[in-house]
Amino acid sequence: MWEFCRTQSRPRLEDLAQRVEAIATWDNLVLPEQQKNVLRNISIHVRQRAKVYQEWGFAGKEAKGLGISALFSGASGTGKTMAAEVLAKELRLDLYRIDLSAVVSKYIGETEKNLRRIFDAAETGGAILLFDEADALFGKRTQVKDSHDRHANVEVSYLLQRMEAYQGLAILTTNLKESLDQAFLRRIRFSIKFPFPDGSARVQIWQRIFPERTPTKKLDFNKLGNLNVAGGNIRNIALNAAFAAAEAGEPVMMKHILQAAEAECVKLERSLTDVEIRGWV
């Protein structure tokens, strides 16, 4: 019944947002325990909001600040979007990634209209809103020098109001936390810094990255953990290695991962070091 109601109330946001199929679980998420505890607290706040706000009277005591918002900051590929997926799957709610290029308009008043559509539609279905690269939309307010600056500040003020009033969960992700408007930071209930994975974390990511049905042979996860890249890059490397192995009619081996790692590093405009790939093949 829950799934049927969720489908029927699913907001129509296809032109401004992309619905993300939430398949990631807590087991897929490699994070320090402190960050995981904050994510669990976010889940608790969403689940218990009706009891605390309505039955226990907090909504009547203070009308402002009842919206549940979270800021996920950290480098690309450190698990910010995956964490949003984990929350959506646990809470059994739809997750929508906001297309900032479709939302922000150079025409005065259009950005607010687009944001109003997003928040109003999401309210009906209780969706989780994910604002990727939020610094582009939630940037620092500027000193007013002309009408465009004044309009930009009005947009930020409007966003603040809607964030506070939104009954669902709004998640902002950013690579540049320092570029966000301080007014937003003060009003965000949860803030999580996603660290770049260290060696032991990368080993765990490698151990979990291949599906059970993927044939592998003689993979040395400890050596793979020496590759100094983020989890998102590890996923790309694993996927490309699987394609190379499938084409060769072989199980995934270290040589396929080396080939894929070299290609990924070209994309990252960096070179593999001898320390990273020592003993791979």
Describe the structure.
Strands 1-3-4-5-2-6 form a six-stranded mixed beta sheet. α8 links the parallel β4 and β5. It contains 14 helices and six strands. About 2% of the residues have low confidence. The longest helix is centred in the middle third of the chain and has 19 residues. It is an alpha/beta fold and 281 residues long.
Q: What's the structural blueprint in terms of helices and strands?
A:
Layout: H1 2-8, E1 17-20, H2 33-47, H3 49-55, H4 58-61, E2 68-74, H5 80-91, E3 95-98, H6 100-103, H7 110-125, E4 128-131, H8 147-165, E5 169-174, H9 182-187, E6 190-194, H10 199-209, H11 221-224, H12 231-248, H13 254-267, H14 274-277
Parallel strand pairs: 2-5, 2-6, 3-4, 4-5
Antiparallel strand pairs: 1-3
Helix pairs in contact: 2-5, 7-8, 10-12, 12-13
Number of domains: 2
Number of strands: 6
Strand-residue fraction?
A: 5-15%
CATH superfamily of the largest domain: P-loop containing nucleotide triphosphate hydrolases
Order of helices and strands: HEHHHEHEHHEHEHEHHHHH
Reported by name, the CATH topology of the largest domain is Rossmann fold
The amount of helix comes to 40-55%
Please give the alpha-carbon distance between the first and last residues: 53 Å
Q: What is the name of the CATH architecture of the largest domain?
A: 3-Layer(aba) Sandwich
Q: Describe the biggest sheet?
A: 6 strands, mixed
- CATH C-level class of the largest domain: Alpha Beta
Average pLDDT, all residues: 86
Pick out the low-confidence regions: 146-150
**Spatial order of strands in the largest sheet:** 1-3-4-5-2-6
